[in-house]
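User: quick one
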Amino acid sequence: MPELLKNEKDFVVPGEKIVESMDYIPGRNCFRDGNAIRSKKIGVVSVAGRVISIIPLNGTYAPKVGDMILGEVIDIQSNGWVVDIGIAHSAYLPLSGIREFIDTTRTQLSSVYNIGDLIYSKISNLNGPDSIHLSMDDVRCRKLRGGRVLDINAAKVPRLIGREGSMIRMIKDKTRCNICVGQNGIIWMDGENQDIALEAIGEIERQPQQDGLTDKIAAMLDSRVKPLQTQTMVTNSTAAEKPSPTGPEPEVAGE
Amino acid sequence: MKRADGRKADELRPVTIKVGVIPNANGSAMVAMGKTIAVAAVYGPRYLHPRFKQKYEKALLNTVYMMVPFSTNERVRPGPSRRSHEICKVTREALEGVVCLEEYPKAVVDVYINIIQANAGTRTAGINAASVALADAGISMKDLVASAAAGKIGDEYVLDLAGKEEEETDCDVPVAYVPGQDKISLLQMDGKLPPEDVEKVIRTAIEGCKQMYEKQKAALRERWVQKG
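Assistant: Done. Structure below.
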């Protein structure tokens, strides 16, 4: 195999040559130019066998089949719902994408999901960048009630989730706040210590690359979050027990 | 020959590029070429309204070039003018070739270029800033676009005309160059020049573009790569 001009994890700008060889295959966010493979975005190089791809450092959310995303119902049509997912194109949740059977002659679609409802759903099918189909056919999918919504840069979502969900699980455990992260960068949260969780998320969004980010966030959360009342009583008598997270935990898609 | 500001004939004005200057934009950049300062902000790809402007197979690249009223000694009347309209068009055409617009059908990518201080070469500074801002916004591009102007004063081919030089030169040739593909995406000429000189002036400008390209890359690296 010929040598790479840019190594794994190197920073590249659009148009930068990564390798000059037909032995490699351009993956996501790069393209072939003659014999060479060049980057299409600012990002870091990632090599998986013969496939070269670029992990983008910025940009709007690029939908992928299987992604869990958060969106707001903006329109109801005869056979489904139009969902705003925070990008240029809206997504469509067809009736066939929800689990229960609905007789459209008897039930109004708005009684299932109404305009303004926030839903956590999965991308079931992609037909070009402007045709995004959703489905609720996953245990994690649900309608979100109450709480608050915030928007972060979609390129930073993998950092917020962490390796196999480590970062977001830690924030949820330590703040005892219910958080639901969409791959599209829309986040919903409800419960205790929302402001502290918000601050942690803000810190991750501002400084996603810094070393020891998990430890820093952990320290920040430990110093800010007041321990549970019940927990202090337990620590007085017996060994410290981990506080159990309150309420049903929404699962988060892994990295 | 010594130039008014002491530069060599094939030397650019001092260039500073700052990336990410506008927090609310998806991508932004400020390019200062000597006393000319351009700020570009990129928004999108986002939903295009009104819908009749949407293109079925690709995104619309919307470039807006504007000189702010205080950018020159004489107040610039705000709003579109014949000149700014033309620069919007040539800027769009200089960038359209490198931006992968087909990846964002029906959407729009808005590029707003503001010249906050003008001292010749505003369209080249604007294109440089817009190209860096587009890359900063994480928009798919085949390459960056670098731009510089050149002219001929006396017998010398001079790069990156500044201030009064624009009046002394026989012609002013702004060039936008796509380094990876070795192609020109903008070529204009103001003034007169014998045919045998044209190529030499363009080559001078391309050399300037190459220098500019390195500065653009360095600026993006500085913005996105953590030090240490």
